[in-house]
Amino acid sequence: MSHHPPIAVLASTRAIVEGKLTAATIVISQVTGRITSIFHSVLPASDFPAGTVYNNYSPCLLLPGLVDAHVHLNEPGRTEWEGFWTGTRAAAHGGVTTVVDMPLNAIPPTTTVAGLREKVQAAQGQCWVDVGFYGGVIPGNSNELKQLVREGVRGFKGFLIDSGPLPSLRMNLQS
């Protein structure tokens, strides 16, 4: 008995692949969540190992997911504004498959490793889509930036001018 890595298969007579409408069968690793193969036809379930998750969505349209790189998921500090559960659920319903949370208008802000870990912990078990985090650059936290990268932030945000109600967040380029 041969062992096959776990995959899921999506198929449709109508899919957007490389910007074109085509029939397609898309194979996704259930280990990594990444697309491993795309076939430009609808392959039958019998072409895959027994027990493979297979869904033919014909005649519905398969579309790539969207990325929203500027969201404010204000949890844990302001969950009533919008938290991970509601924000990521709304994103999923709109076709967004990945969101990246902004770092500064949050409690806690993700300007330190401790703040990032608190946000990540708050997100556990609540996310309907993939979530990434930005780190915030503020005066006095330059010693945190490398460790924030090691912890997985996807980028950084900082203000070069006063940011309205948060003037103390302006970066000093000399520091």
List keywords for this structure.
31% strand, 15% helix, alpha/beta, 175 residues
Low-confidence sequence ranges? none
- Number of helical segments with 4 or more residues: 3
What order do the helices and strands follow? EEEEEEHEHEHE
CA radius of gyration is 21 Å
**How would you classify the helix and strand content by structural class?**
alpha/beta
What percent of residues adopt helix (DSSP H or I)?
10-25%
Distance between the termini: 62 Å
Report the β-strand fraction as a percent range: 25-35%
Biggest sheet, in brief? 5 strands, mixed
Mean pLDDT: 89
Could you tell me the number of beta strands? 9
C-alpha geometry:
elongated
Report on the architecture of this protein:
This protein is of the alpha/beta class and 175 residues long. It is 15% helix and 31% strand. The protein contains three helices and nine strands; from the N terminus they run E-E-E-E-E-E-H-E-H-E-H-E. The chain has helices spanning 84-93, 113-123, 145-150, and strands at residues 7-17, 20-29, 35-39, 53-56, 61-62, 66-71, 96-101, 130-136, 155-157. The strands form two sheets. Strands 1, 2, 3, 4 and 5 form a five-stranded mixed sheet that branches. Helix 3 (145-150) links the parallel strand 8 and strand 9 (155-157). It is elongated and about 60 Å long. The model has no long low-confidence stretch (mean pLDDT 89).
Outline the secondary-structure elements.
Elements: E1 7-17, E2 20-29, E3 35-39, E4 53-56, E5 61-62, E6 66-71, H1 84-93, E7 96-101, H2 113-123, E8 130-136, H3 145-150, E9 155-157
